[in-house]
Structures are given as structure tokens and as C-alpha cells.
Amino acid sequence: MTHAHLIILGSGAAGCTAAIYAARAGLAPLMIRGNQPGGQLTITTDVENYPGFAETIQGPWLMEQMEAQAKHCGATIVGDHIVQADLTAKTLVGMGGDTYTFDALIVATGASAKWLGLESEKTYNGRGVSACATCDGAFYRNREVAVVGGGNTALEEALYLANIAKHVTIIHRRDHFRGEKVLQDRVLAHPKISVIWDHVVADILGDPHPMTGGVTGLRLAHASTGVTRDIAIHGLFVAIGHQPNTKLFAGQLDMDATGYLVVEKGTVFALRDGQRVPGILAAGDVADPLYRQAVTAAGMGCMAALDANRWLESQHI
Fold it and tell me: With the CA atoms of 153, 158, 160 and 166 taken in that order, what torsion angle do they form, in degrees rounded to the nearest 10?
């Protein structure tokens, strides 16, 4: 059994930032990396919008630097994936059976983009396939792109991309959108956005060469007849939603209708039945259904570490 005053669950931008601040506060935090060490930035290649870097940097490199900084500041990092959590007993159990106990816990398990499930989606991830227009849209300036989805996320992504790309094609499996009416009206009236109704993405076409290749088009299939057609594009943005990684905490922490953790207003303490859960905090995409940016996740990680430090001091721990 391993005990730490503070355990940070997750090693993305929120987790690493929390570890840096907590370590510098003398809390000797233990950060458990999870099954996707470094979080979503590790599947993002070019990063242009993280403050402090004038030139484009690589997502995996940025997360390596964050983790190295956390270690340098004094955090201990463990490569494990937690499969069981008992917040009342303040106990976590790892995939191999290792047990961890804590006085305070920062949940920074992030959120995972929902994907189409195509093998070609994996081939071109980061090289023409993205799940974040605000992260990667700038790489498609004056180029043809497509967005798949029909909810608020897809409509917002399309409107954002229309300010950058030459043209945006929305692909939706139904004959109507599910998003808010005001967003539908904006999309349907936009001169740079068109919609292909009643179709699904059957395959992503392109050159798979790891250095020079990329997406060149999509093979679409009619949702009812299955008849296929190909369209030419340079980038595909999958906008069918995100799934917060909160299953561990079902029944133990408050969540919104889509599964994101709810935090106390003015702090990042997690809630149970609308009340603060002492010593349990949440940071990053796991508690952020709106922004989902590395910089906002890092900011929440900082807040969580500061809140945790004040709480531990108040408990004389």
C-alpha cells in the first residue's frame, strides 16, 4: 500500500500543472499517469496556441516537458491505471492490484473524444483528422475541410472553421441537426458552409506516408441505401462529442447530464449531493464541458493544487 498526502489522478496538462504547484508547496504529491500518459496532447502533433512558444511545438514534447518539470519540482510519478476508487475510504486500486491511499485527491482524468471507429481514422489522426477545431483549425487556412456531426459541437466547429478554411462541409447521418436553433440558422445561412445530409463517413482517404502523407478525401455512404460517393477534402474534424473519464466516480460525485464532474463555484472542489466533498478536487477536461483547452486545463490544475494545499493546511495534515 502506498500513501500520499495528495494524489493526482491523471497526467495531462491539468495533472502535471497540479503536480508542479503541489510539489513546490511541499506536498510531495503522487501523480498516477493513467492509461493515456500525457492526455490528449499526446495525440496532437503541431501545437501553436500554448502560451510561451513563438514557434510551433509538438504535443507529445510539451507533455514530456510538463512531466519532467513536475519531477524536477519533487512530484513522484507512477505508471498505473486506476480501476477502482472508494472516495469515502480514500483508497484507489490500480490495474495490477496496487493500493493507494490519500488525504486529498485531484481528479484530472480528462475527457476522451468520441471517434468514428474507423481504422483509417487512427492512420490519419494528427495528419488530417482532428477532434478539435480551435486546436488544429489554423493548419487548414484556405483549404477544404469537413466536419462530421450534427449537435452543438459540430455546428460550433463548422462556424469556427468557416473563418479559416476555404469551405466547410458538414456530414450528418440524419436529415436535420440536433443543435440549438440559433446555431442551425447561422450554419445554414453561412456562404462557406454546406451540408451533406443522410450520410456517414465510411472511410478516410489519403496518402499514409508518415512524413509526407495526409488526408485527401472521404468516402461517404448514404445512411439508408449504403450507396457511396467520394469527396475531396484536406482535413476532417470529428465532432460527435466528448466523453469525460468519470466512470470511476459514478455514484460518488455529482455529474452533469453528460457525465462531467461538477465543482463548487469559486473553487474546484468536487460536489456530492450539491455539497463540497472535503479533500476531493477536479481539474481539466473532466470538469470542463465547454473550453477543453490545454491552457484552461493547466489553469484548473493550478487552482486544484492551491485549493488542496489550503484544505490540507486547514486539516493540519
Answer: 160
Cell of 53: 512558444
pTM above 0.70, yes or no: yes
Local structure of 161: helix, strand or coil: helix
DSSP annotation string for 167-226: EEEEE-SSSS--S-HHHHHHHHH-TTEEEE-SEEEEEEEEE--TTT-EEEEEEEEETTT-
DSSP track, 117-145 = --HHHHHTBTTTEES-HHHHGGGGTTSEE
List active site positions: 132, 135-136
Residue 37, pLDDT score: 87
Query: Angle 109-285-107 (CA atoms, 0-180°, nearest 5)?
Result: 35
Bridge-partner residues for 144, per DSSP? 167
Cα distances (angstroms) measured from residue 138 to each of 6, 132, 283: 38, 11, 27
Residue 44 near residue 126, CB atoms below 8 Å:
yes
**pLDDT given at position 45:** 65
